Amino acid sequence: MLKNITIYSIGNIIPQAATFLLLPLYTRYLIPAEYGIVQSMHVMAGILTVLMTLAIDRSIYRFYFEYNTIDKRKAFLGTITISLLSISTITLFILLIMRSTVALIFESISFYPYFAYAITTVYLTVLGIIPKVYFQVEEKAGKFIKFSLGEFFLKTILIIFFVVYAGRGAEGMLLGGLLSAFFLSPVYIYVISKIIIPKWDKNIFIENIKYSYPMVVGLLSGWILNLSDRVFIERFLSITDVGIYSLAYKIAGILMISTTAINQAYNPIFFKIANDKNKNSKQILSVYNNYIILCIIMFAMIITMFSKEFIMILSHEYSSAYSLVPIIMVGIIFSQIGGLYNRAYYQEKTTIQPTLIGLAAAVLNVLLNILWVPRYGIVGAAYSTVISFMLMFILIYSFSKRYYYIPINWSTLLPIFTLFIFISVFFFYFNFSIIIGLLLKCSLIILVCLFFWYKYKDALLKKPIQT
Fold this sequence. Notes:
By secondary structure, this protein is mostly helical. It is built from 20 helices and no strands. It has helices at about 1-20, 25-30, 30-55, 60-65, 70-95, 100, 110-125, 130-135, 140-165, 170-195, 200-225, 230-235, 240-250, 255-275, 280-315, 325-345, 350-375, 380-400, 410-430, 435-460. α12 (about 230-235) packs antiparallel against α13 (about 240-250) and α13 crosses α16. It is globular and about 65 Å long. The two termini are about 15 Å apart.
């Protein structure tokens, strides 16, 4: 599992982490309003990706190995590729025709150049989906890493050029992403030409669209939960507030970056153990789950503790973002733990329950944002996120008991979560100088790590359980 985590970290997590580390540079050259424009377009990109793919690329993971010859697999990928290009092209033309309506999503942002750049970038990046999924299912980790890092470095170089050297602000940041996708398009096309047979099969398309369309609802619900609050902030407050809130969310979102690699590595382990006839399977998975939840809470505590010092490095215009980080972090903790329990449904081959639960949480999030953002500002948006994710976790956990339920060791984890809350509140209300604050926080982390190492070292040093 550690080996797989390392592979996915290099290819997928490091670019995201590096983007975060570049925040001090970007915020130095982008005022909060410009940063708000960029993040608003990233919000647009999230929903556009769903609309331009209808999630049919995700069916590759499920159906690829049902085809037992190379030619059949290539024909399958050919159908998926042609379908993706057709759907994305139709969506592109609809968006351009309805550009005046699309621009109403963020009224303070003009369609040209901002919306146009974001829409075109998503359209071009659809080409890169098939190669990356192919590398994953074929376990060609080296090529996956080269692909991901190549995309990251090219995009970063272009963004730095347009933002830092050309001084083109938010437009330059979006233009850098667009040109990166444009320059990589020939590479995408070349790789695709080697792995597909370019023909379209109606039956394959219908089978895959039936499998993927329920995921569209889930993905849209996830978009609403994670990103739609920026729409309400821009509508009721200002684009500057979008920038400040987005920065706080990005810092808290480091937790999601940290847990992505864990989840990618844990998925095959979970289903391998769950499908084994061993009577101890649930007990084994309970140990895995509890260790992962422990890691989630620990990562959250470390990120929250040092968020103040990180924001102080940035421009003083972003200083108010610090107070939002602990609030948003609580919501993200619940979302990540809830994600562990989605596997209870997937193991029983059902996706409708988590889809409906996500939809219910999304509806609640929209209602709370409408009620609280005008009254409480960006703090209201943060609490809307927490309440929505808490509801989603409670429902997912409660209903999972009807499926492949894995118990949580509440007696151990609740005190740790309480400790996280206490430490966050303590450092929020008591101000220290940077040096004293860093010394206190580092000392506390060392003590906590030593405590958990002493408590769990015997289990961590055991050889993996064979099933």
